[in-house]
Specification:
This protein has helices at residues 2-11, 18-27, 31-45, 52-59, 63-75, 98-135, 141-152, 158-170, 176-188, 194-211; strands at 80-85, 91-96. The protein has 239 residues and is mostly helical. It has a two-stranded antiparallel ribbon with strand order 1-2.
């Protein structure tokens, strides 16, 4: 048992990314090509020279089949074969996996992009849903076209449209025309995110507090009324 353990430890271990392990099929590698790559990677990490005869014995493949697998990897641009020189001046074949890693990173980036696109699509769908919920009815084709224009032509952020919807509801105006005027007003003020809207609200509250500050002693003046500010910039209620 001790000899087996010693042999196991002496054999060493190789490092391979789980990203590669989980996605080699999506990259276009079959099992035989993938195992050959692992064999070459293992020997490269150990600093060993790549001996194709030894590889064919390890994989129990004849040299012609091994050669075909190697050519496939090169033709599919997973592997690049270059010539290097050792410290003694001897030339040897060097196996470069840069192309493989580029494909792997591109695959991962495409998946991330797809996830972001799906998230964006979901957010856009939620805009239509929120408006229908607040209006208490289905949207008309003309209204659907207007919202589509906000999202895909004017490129308003979905979160911004939902915030404009809330402002309209607070003012009890259930009209896309009114929401559109809010969005235009925000655009003129360079309001593009929910954080921008929050800063605008804070600024308005400070302005209202300044205007409503009493100029005479409180005991001689009734408490001021607090008006609801029209965030659309003084927009008349649009029906």
């Amino acid at each position: 048992m001790d000899k087996i353990l010693q042999k196991y430890l002496a054999a060493g271990q190789m490092t391979v990314s789980n990203l590669l392990l989980n996605n080699y099929r999506q990259l276009g590698l079959d099992e035989a090509e993938f195992i050959l790559m692992l064999q070459i990677m293992s020997r490269t990490q150990q600093g060993k020279a790549i001996d194709l005869t030894e590889l064919s014995q390890s994989m129990q493949l004849d040299t012609s089949k091994l050669g075909n697998l190697l050519r496939n990897l090169i033709e599919k641009k997973f592997l690049r074969l270059t010539t290097a020189t050792d410290t003694a001046g001897r030339k040897y074949d060097k196996y470069d996996f840069t192309l493989l890693y580029e494909k792997l990173f591109a695959l991962e980036q495409n998946e991330v992009t797809a996830e972001l696109t799906q998230t964006e699509t979901t957010s856009k769908q939620e805009v239509y849903k929120n408006i229908e919920v607040e209006f208490g009815r289905l949207l008309t084709p003309m209204e659907l076209q207007t919202i589509d224009s906000w999202l895909n032509t004017e490129n308003y952020a979905p979160e911004l449209i939902v915030l404009a919807l809330r402002e309209a509801v607070l003012n009890q105006v259930y009209s896309l025309k009114y929401i559109d005027k809010i969005l235009l007003s925000w655009e003129k003020q360079n309001i593009k995110t929910s954080a921008d809207v929050q800063r605008l609200r804070q600024k308005r509250r400070q302005e209202l507090a300044q205007k409503e500050r009493p100029t005479v002693p409180k005991q001689n003046k009734a408490k001021p009324s607090i008006p609801m500010y029209d965030w659309s910039g003084g927009i008349d209620d649009a029906q």
